[in-house]
Design brief:
The chain is mostly helical and about 700 residues long. It is built from 38 helices and nine strands. The chain has a six-stranded mixed β-sheet with strand order 1-3-4-5-2-6, with helices on both faces. The chain has a three-stranded antiparallel β-sheet with strand order 7-9-8. The termini are far apart.
């Protein structure tokens, strides 16, 4: 019979090529006050290697216990054999590695004997895949315990890079970082990932697609983890793989059982791949790769349960108000009707709060025919594609939604569906501005005052009024839309403010335009909408306003953002694209980028021709082209090229009068004053009114 105790110091077991864990070793060798070291982690985390490396660097002798013999030896005699020569040995470390192989009661009894009688400076090291079968609270409180668990054993990117290189895989550090996040720093997972990728030409791409159901990983999990679990825990683990978070009540509902909270507690102690998410250990999650492997096992052994489990999870989350997870499980269950109803009921919040990428991810799970086959799902998808800037797909799905509603006789049913279809018609504007206005009014009439759709309807109605020349009516609707959407639909808030700012610019009310665009900018920044394509109009209005006020650096930044977002949108909706490009063109002119302005105006003109009935575009185009004509006439820059009319305007620039006030005194239009003033700026090489005054003074053009 193999002895339970190896009293002599064991020869080093550290294998060449293993990544050294120097920080952990220093922590262990430097500890003299603690009496118990607990190292608990799933297989493949390097527990035994850490113990061997520690033994190599610690001057204390190590006594190694053979866990497989504890069942057949006298524990009292074993403890005495360890403790008897303590006086001669001095400080020492008793190691019980792979403790999960020994009977729990034997482990508990032996540890209690040793801990009760250890001499000063001696220490017990317990290493296992499962939690030690004894209470640890008192030792923690007395600082007599050192715990090394998954977070400490998980590898950092630099260590992971060494593992991959030792496995013959060279990838860039960004790929290593992504792989560490995917494997959660699991050393064996990193090595198996390298084996799985092998000699593939696109190693980085293969690693980015790595899942726990990969053959090498799944096989390891089955042999090293699942095989050690009793059948009831294995079944529980496999079936709960459909859940991203686990709790007792949720698992009871999904598995149609009772006592899941206790089962989760058993699993937590049996397998460290179940991670607690809260201090009370009531909420858990599976290690990501292990969850993949469990899912593969579920599909292999009980494929008929996959849909059923997702449907139960969907029902539970819906009842508890977690719409995100309810929709996710409905999508996973391939339940088009339930997914469509849930998504349509919440689509406004998703597309207006910067969360449209989530929706796009769900929609990618369905075919085009599936999306168009159920009216609520098709209409929700149409609005999502609109928010993503794909107007063509949105139009297709809106038509499909109308047809599906007609087939199911629901066209005259839920008002929200009819309002949603009207909203699509208003946004797309296929019947010109007149049709846009009618569709927006119809959508508003169909929706109640407290409807989440109302801010969108108000924005569309206000925009339609503005485009037809009714500025006063437009401002009232846009103000109401901005107020209603402030808390629930921030992207609509930014659009209402940007449209109102465009009206203020038309009226030469630059202070109001600045206030509105600054508010829109704060909303975009605070709600994380800076990369949301539909916010291009807000950046365009801000660029124009800031350029006019001489805030050149900010204007250039907004100009770049607006152009980048418009690039993502493509042609999108003609009236929207024309508005945004007109504003960006004016910003470019005031920033002295005539070439960029001409390009933007040409694009805006092309889009404007596709929107009939617009009354305001002509004014914007005339204003821009006349400004460029003035620039062409004054291409010879310098103070000597100033005309008599421009010198007359120059006299007023040191004052605080607005262009409108100067125009009133001179008896000309405000637009004429603005054009001549900007000609003065250009000829003097100035970017703002104050800079023009300074340069004119330096040139002796202004009296002291």
């Amino acid at each position: 019979m193999k002895p339970a105790v190896e009293p002599a110091r064991r020869a080093a077991r550290t294998r060449d090529g293993l990544v050294k864990r120097s920080t952990l070793v220093r922590r262990l060798t430097g500890s003299r006050d603690a009496t118990l070291v607990v190292i608990v982690a799933p297989p493949g985390y390097g527990k035994s290697s850490l113990l061997s490396e520690w033994a190599d660097h610690d001057p204390r002798p190590f006594v190694w216990l053979a866990p497989e013999t504890l069942e057949s030896v006298d524990l009292r005699s074993t403890a005495d054999a360890i403790l008897a020569p303590a006086d001669d040995r001095g400080e020492f470390v008793v190691v019980l590695d792979d403790a999960h192989l020994a009977p729990p009661q034997a482990v508990r009894d032996l540890l209690e004997m040793l801990l009760a009688e250890l001499p000063a400076g001696a220490m017990v090291a317990f290493s296992s895949r499962t939690e030690p079968p004894l209470p640890l609270g008192r030792l923690r409180a007395r600082r007599g315990l050192i715990e090394v668990r998954v977070p400490e054993l998980a590898m950092m990117p630099a260590e992971a890079s060494l593992v991959l290189r030792q496995a013959g895989l060279e990838v860039d550090f960004t790929t290593v970082q992504a792989l560490v996040r995917r494997t959660e720093g699991w050393p064996a997972g990193l090595y198996l990932a390298a084996l799985s990728v092998g000699a593939q030409p696109d190693a980085a791409g293969a690693l980015s697609r790595l899942r726990g159901d990969d053959h090498h990983l799944a096989e390891y999990f089955r042999e090293e983890v699942l095989s050690a679990l009793p059948p009831d825990l294995t079944e529980f683990a496999v079936q709960t793989s459909v859940l991203d978070e686990l709790s007792g009540p949720l698992c009871d509902a999904v598995l149609e059982t009772r006592g899941s909270a206790l089962t989760l507690s058993r699993l937590e102690h049996a397998i460290a791949l179940l991670r607690p998410l809260d201090p009370a250990h009531e909420l858990y999650r599976w290690h990501g790769l292990f969850r993949d492997a469990l899912g593969a096992e579920l599909r292999r052994t009980a494929p008929e349960l996959v849909q059923v489990l997702h449907e139960r999870a969907c029902a539970w989350y819906e009842a508890h108000g977690d719409t995100d997870r309810a929709i996710s499980h409905a999508v996973s269950a391939r339940d088009l009707v339930h997914a469509g109803d849930l998504l349509w009921g919440s689509i406004v919040g998703y597309v207006t709060q910067g969360r449209n990428e989530i929706v796009q991810g769900w929609l990618a799970s369905f075919t085009r025919d599936e999306l168009g086959g159920y009216a609520p799902l098709a209409l929700a998808a149409a609005h999502s594609f609109l928010a993503a800037g794909n107007a063509a797909e949105a139009r297709h799905l809106a038509v499909a939604a109308a047809a599906a509603a007609e087939r199911s006789r629901r066209a005259r049913g839920p008002r929200s569906l009819r309002a949603g279809l009207a909203g699509i018609d208003a946004i797309v504007g296929r019947a010109g501005v007149g049709g846009m206005r009618e569709a927006a009014e119809r959508a508003c009439e169909l929706e109640p005052e407290d409807s989440p759709w109302r801010p969108m309807c108000l924005f569309l109605r206000g925009t339609a009024l503005h485009l037809t020349g009714d500025r006063a009516g437009a401002v009232l609707l846009l103000d109401e839309g901005a107020d209603l959407s402030a808390a629930t639909a921030p992207s609509i808030t930014s659009l209402c403010l940007a449209q109102a700012a465009m009206i203020a610019i038309e009226q030469q009310d630059w202070d109001t335009a600045a206030e509105l665009t600054d508010r829109a900018g704060r909303v975009i920044e605070e709600r994380g909408l800076a990369e949301y394509p539909i916010c291009a109009l807000a950046f365009a209005a801000s660029a124009a306003t800031r350029a006019h006020h001489g805030r050149a650096d900010e204007a250039k930044r907004d100009l770049r953002s607006g152009i980048e977002l418009l690039t993502l949108l493509g042609d999108f909706i003609p009236w929207y694209g024309a508005e945004a490009r007109i504003l960006l063109a004016h910003a470019s002119l005031w920033l002295a980028d005539v070439v960029g302005a001409r390009t933007l105006l040409a694009e805006a003109s092309r889009l404007a021709r596709r929107t009939s009935g617009v009354a305001v575009f002509e004014h914007w185009f005339d204003d821009a082209w006349s400004y460029m004509d003035a620039l062409a006439e004054t291409s010879l820059a310098g103070p000597s090229s100033l005309t008599i009319a421009e010198l007359r305007i120059l006299r007023f620039l040191p004052s605080h009068r607005s262009f409108r006030e100067i125009a009133a005194q001179l008896g000309v239009s405000a637009n004429t004053v603005k054009t001549q003033a900007h000609a003065v700026y250009r000829k003097l090489g100035a970017a703002s009114r104050s800079e023009a005054v300074m340069r004119a003074s330096d040139a002796g053009l202004l009296g002291q």
